[in-house]
Amino acid sequence: MASFAPSPADVADIGVTGMAVMGSNLARNLARHGYKVAIHNRSVGKTEKVIDSYGDEGQFFPSETMEDFVASLQKPRVAIIMVKAGGPTDAVIDELADLMDEGDIIVDAGNALFTDTRRREAALRERGLHFVGTGVSGGEEGALNGPSIMPGGTPESYKRLGPMLEDISAHVDGEPCCTHVGEDGAGHFVKMVHNGIEYADMQVISEAYDMMSKALGMDAAAIGDVFDQWNKGDLESFLIEITAGVLHHVDDRTGKPFVDIILDQAAQKGTGAWTVQTALDLGVPVTGIAEATFARSVSGGVAQREAARGVLPAEAETQAIDDPERFIDDLQKALYAAKLVSYSQGFDEIAKGAEEYGWNINLGDMAKIWRDGCIIRAKFLNRITEAYDRNPELPLLLADEYFTTEIAKCIPAWRRVVAYAAENGYPVPVFASTLSYYDAVRSERLPAALVQAQRDFFGAHTYQRVDGEGTFHVEWSEDRRESRQD
């Protein structure tokens, strides 16, 4: 393949380096929308494959070297990186930065830890370059046909980059599923939380499936029919839709339901763990996301599961379900409630992150750009946008009038599902943890008072009183006299 040597009038609008599936699909999406796209890959064969297979989809400018790739870009240059996170991303950033001029824009559209993005943005800013950490959700299909896009970086860089990203994103009612999220690492932070919510959503859906399978003895296809029906109501969403598709799929080799031949060990790439670790640092309880992340760890703990199997007693009842239709309706309501809590917790984390790092993130806009193109797209996201439109300072999404009404309809069913699971020995970590969080956050008084008293006893950590101002400590090892500490 010949290297590209541009004439002044023959330059690309934007470039993509990294021609694996996500990178090539993003480049094709841009080309299909009429943009001239420079493409590059460290191994030239992948670039040639894109040209050979999809060269008729638009104007591509292939390059063998990074020097030619950068030279083929219109100034101010925009280069999107779609390579493996971590060291490989840093290496490509350094290579690009050495070839670029002041005002040029480097975009990392992979899954990156937002603190890495902040570090990279600060370093490139000193060199006069813009660095834009950009979340892209929707997988391979979304990258090609319209993803949800969450760009960070400077407002100035968004003026050059934003119109192109908005153009290729998914659209709902004529509105792009893309907006400027906030500066430096804001885009990757929001994408991280998006993925955390995705973890919770997937896990609680699997818990509903498990209950229908074990408690009702339903086969995969019958459960798939239930999910098809649920997808016509409040639970309408991409994940419910694909769950029905998976459950209806039959394995070609064995003729068995596809889900039954898959090893029950769920993998993870780290974004769920990042969400939980960051939430702990920020002091935000994301119990649904945390339990979903731990559930994957439990599933992969082969040695522990083998040691427990047949040894740890269940001491559980086996209760027959007299009214399967009511039980399925309970599961539907419990699933809806657990999903609402997980989304609410995710938005709490975004709000706290914005406060901590000085990002002006519009929470309603985040729900709006998730309405299509992304993995967690769902019918009720419009309601989240409306909630933040009513009150941009809403401290708790669940406290919005619409969601208090919706979740109230689900509470009795939610409690019945969790109680039945506990009595019969079925693991439902997200169903149970989101209900427990709901009960905690609505409580007039929590047992944290005793925890704080214990902390003061063994560590002199002090406490406040309900009947006045001030910080106090009891001399527990002496005369147990209370003294004011502030």
Would you give an account of this structure?
With 486 residues, the protein is an alpha/beta fold. The protein is 53% helix and 9% strand. The protein is built from 20 helices and eleven strands. It has a seven-stranded mixed beta sheet with strand order 3-2-1-4-5-6-7, sandwiched between helices. The radius of gyration is 26 Å and the shape is globular. It starts with 13 loop residues before the first strand and ends with a strand.
Give a concise summary.
The protein has 486 residues and is of the alpha/beta class. It contains 20 helices and 11 strands.
Compute the number of strand runs: 11
Structural class designation: alpha/beta
Average pLDDT, to the nearest integer?
95
Number of helices: 20
> How large a portion of the residues is in β-strands, by DSSP E?
5-15%
**Major beta sheet, specifics?**
7 strands, mixed
How are the strands of the biggest sheet laid out side by side? 3-2-1-4-5-6-7
Unreliable segments (pLDDT under 50, ≥5 consecutive)? Answer: 1-8
Radius of gyration, taken over Cα atoms and rounded to an integer in Å = 26 Å
Q: Give the N-terminus to C-terminus distance in angstroms.
A: 74 Å
How helical, in percent, are the residues?
Answer: 40-55%
| Molecular shape | globular
